[in-house]
Amino acid sequence: MNQPVSLSSLPPLHPRAFRMPAAVGGIVRGLLIGLLAVAIFGPLLNMLIWTVTEAWYFPAKLPVRWGFAFWTKVFRPEAGAMQALWTSLVIAVLTVLLSLAIAIPAGYALSKRDLPLRSLFLLFFLLPQAFPTIAVHLNIARIFYGLGLTGTIAGVMLVHAIQGLVFAVWIASATFAAIGSEQVEAARNLGASPLRAFLTISLPLAAPGLMASAIFVFLISLDEFSGTFFVGVPNVRTLPLTMLNAALEGNYQIASITALLLLVPSVLFMLFVERFLKADVLSGVGK
Amino acid sequence: MARLSSTSGLGRLGPALLLMAPAVVMVGLLFVYPLLVSLAFAFRNESTGAWDLANFQKAFSLYGNDIALTAGVTVLATALVGVLAIAIAGYLTLGENPRAVFVLRWLYRWPLFIPFVVAAQLMRTFLAKNGMLNNALMSLGVVDPLHAISLLDWRGVVITFVWKQLPFAALLISGAMASMDRSMIESARGLGAGRFRILLEIVVPQVMSTVFVALILSFVTMLSALSVPMMIVAGSPTLLTVDMAWRVNSYGDYGVANALGFVSFAMSGVAAWFYLRQGLREGGKPR
Q: Are B18 and B5 contacting, i.e. CB atoms less than 8 angstroms apart?
């Protein structure tokens, strides 16, 4: 073995000999990261420019007239965007409440590793993510039509909840599993009922993980498109549908402003979600 | 001590089933049932009332090109997501420049929480003929204004899918790489192996199952996306999701829509089969 030990852990003995490749590597690395930054932020920047554009014609590289004229158009009541934002938020909150109410007990049951048929149940709850949803959505719409649920907030909420439930159940299960059972068992030995032990010990300990799953479900509902597209017609118009209409009408400004409205909660939550979602929970998802 | 006996074996399943019942019922009624309806009614000939392959014949003759395009676009986008996600996760795991690793970690996640509809709108402006991409290429002299082309066709869909799904796959894969045992990496490094070789020959094989999960979830998500092709692709050829929506909304033709749905289920089934085969092969390998 005449090979040196790990090169990275030792300072190079002859810095001059390593300078050239390191510099070339640094340039390549800088270029690649720069390219990724452009690829990620370029589209975002392009949209932001459109939100403050009043006129922009093809060969011009930047808008020929800037301004907030289209913002007043979007925020006018008759434009429907504010109504759509409100509808989206109401549906998202209801979806979170329903999904968590159903997912918390299920996740708690699934957090016990020795549960018989556990992986079968986990697989069952994965189904809505394992199949392309579109054909399911149009058949749900057909079924809901017979039940009078199409075009209602309740109908749209149910469709959103089924998409959110997958993540809610899996995150809740991983969260409860990460807590461990010592404290619960101690409480049980002191005479607490199972329900009381759950409410006073497991639930508070799981709160950060459950908060993360609530955020996930909220964002899924806000983003949900095809279910709303089929089930929501003709009365329920969420923000994504409003954005689609603006975009297909060729109104770049209104579509971009609506997109920005949809983006704000996502970016806010991205900044906060890491606080709630610990790495050990993430690594436990699906285990 | 009565508790101890009830916590072992199948006795546990009773209370757990009770806790899981609402979630099971919900997935059953709102996902499995419509899924089965969709699969069955793909074979239902609405005009004669018989069960035959008429819907499929019609679907293939009308939308054969779109079926091929959908398969091509989703497979290509999934492959690109896989290669790029492994590259990003690999650099996060093996990168030796802490500043570059930090920047990359901060950078790559941005599209994760950006809704699909918003991503579609971003790309609709960015990739258009007058979009920032063409403007930048024109400024660099790579493209002259007369030859500026809009990428708003299948290429735009691939770009949008990769842009949106890459952070998700990279997050899962880098998580798996981070929880790997590093001793093998260090000893390979000690023997003088390059980082590229370490990534391909040591790291990737160990996280292969996570790579497959990430890619299959991405693949299914792409097959389900209605908003992206609807907003990016003008006219034909387009993706199956748009065709399904069109069949239902314009003709009330659930038969052909369900047949197309069956085709997209079959595509995700092929992907799942690859995954299961991989799982079996891994399971059969001594660890």
A: no
Answer whether B12 sits within 8 Å of A114, measured CB to CB: yes
Instruction: Indicate the residue of B22, B112, B272 with minimum beta-carbon distance to A130.
Output: B272
φ, ψ (nearest 5 deg) of residue A66: -100, 160
SS3 (DSSP) at A32: helix
- pLDDT recorded at residue A71: 83
The residues, ordered by sequence, that sit 6+ positions from A229 with a Cβ below 8 Å of its Cβ are A137, A241, B226, B245
Residues in chain A with CB shorter than 8 Å from the CB of B109 are: 270
Nearest to B117 among A36, A225, A267 (CB): A225
Q: What predicted TM-score, i.e. pTM, was given to this entire model? A: 0.85
Q: What is the pLDDT of residue A1?
A: 41
Coil, strand or helix at A287: coil
The answer to whether B211 and B173 have CB atoms below 8 angstroms apart is yes
What is the predicted ipTM? 0.82
pLDDT at B188 (0 to 100): 86
Structure token digits, residue B15: 């209370």
